[in-house]
Amino acid sequence: MTETNLPDLIQQMLKPGFYSHPVTEPIELIQTHVSYVLLTGDYAYKLKKPVNFGFLDYSTLERRQHFCHQELRLNERGAGELYLEVLPVTLEGEKYHLGGTGEAVEYALKMRQFPQEALFSELLAQNKLNETDLEELGRLVAEYHAQAQTNDHIRSFGEVSQVRLAIDENYEQTLKYIGAPQTQERFAQTKAYTDNFFDQRPELFVIRIVNNYIRECHGDLHLRNIARWHDKIMVFDCIEFNEPFRFVDVMYDVAFTVMDIEAKGRKDLGNAFLNTYAEQTGDWEGLQVLPLYLSRQAYVRAKVTSFLLDDPNLPASVKEEAGKTASAYYCQAWDYTIPKQGQVILMSGLSGSGKSTTARYLARKLGAVHLRSDAVRKHLAGIPLLERGGDKIYTPEMTQKTYNRLLTLGISLANQGWCVILDAKYDRQHLRQEVITQTQQNQLPLQIIHCTAPIEVLQERLVNRTGDIADATADLLVSQIKQAEPFTNQEQPYLKILDTTQSLEAQL
């Protein structure tokens, strides 16, 4: 759209004299199919286009005003520093004014402007995101969800009939792309997976509703809506225009982030985010519905990219690129539905022997779920992860409860195709035997990895340990050594012993 084709208001907003504050010239205009965003230097102004797409309706001034205020309110949760105020736009003669006192003819959302290179999508493209960033994001999203609202109305959107609506609509809207970016086989198999999931596992959705996992979420939590600015991670531009896209399972949000990271070839970073989120929330059961939402989010990306193929104004080169991108997303959506072989890895070793470091390394390599006994124990006790646990959470009863929960989760997730790492001391034969028995009964592959290091190294690691959820201290080592029971002949075929003072990569 050339400048002369733009509405008068937007043409005036592109001129520096329109604003009461200094601007950086030239003022930049970013357009989407639903909004205009004007970048002026310190501030950005967002105006909604008078459009109605069914799922989104900004067709009247009243609706645009309402959704500007909704956007401001909802984004205060994840990016309060960015979203400043909703300003009326008034008209005197042929001149528009921002924040005038007359009758409003339009509304603009005023935001702080930040550099595009602060976006997680840009940081990832430049290889500037690391595991620590994604672990921090995992903790932030866990907190965001903990504070998100829920009630009977919101929970009703977790019912199978509601969850199905958007997924089935995606399939209907992509029928015409079969034979181009989508293939008949991938389409049929992806659809069969979701149909079967809803038909065969309705109880999962009931449990998610009962346990309050349907909340007022972000709804669009991909990397372009996450930024690190002023050394703080912010999540912004959440869905304000459509309740069914926002009143969703928390795993819907998590899936958007994981899918987007994996689409960009960094499964290790997706794993760091996912394991941190699950550990913070204790919602490991949510991983049972995650593949459904991973497939759904990739399919939405495929669909939206396919729509570009219908635009007569786009050049052939852009359409060719869109076709390749859409095809990759269709393939990713299908890949999430392919049955995987689950397996269990049992970590063993004294405190400070490097079990968690090794488990974390393996989790990133294998895309595994990392279940730490320290986290499981504290969730069972109802205390914050970083709070030191008193004697009452280290009784024999509590320890047995912790190991029972680890094993129940591990077998359940491995049966669904996850690789699961059970990260605990596992210093007693009966605890290890229980894992062997259960994996054999469920025909799941098992590996036992026993971590070792000289006692002086263990002591040094425990003395220097900070900011971790584990409570063990160096003075416990003597009793741990006494209590540890040797591996039996039956355990030997599963066993690999690691010296954690040496390279993990070389040994594994």
TrEMBL record:
Belongs to the gluconokinase GntK/GntV family. This is gluconokinase. Its EC number is 2.7.1.12. The lineage of its organism: Bacteria, Bacillati, Cyanobacteriota, Cyanophyceae, Nostocales. It comes from the Bacteria. It comes from Nostoc azollae (strain 0708). Keywords: ATP-binding, Kinase, Nucleotide-binding, Transferase. It is an enzyme of class 2 (transferase). GO terms for biological process: carbohydrate metabolic process.
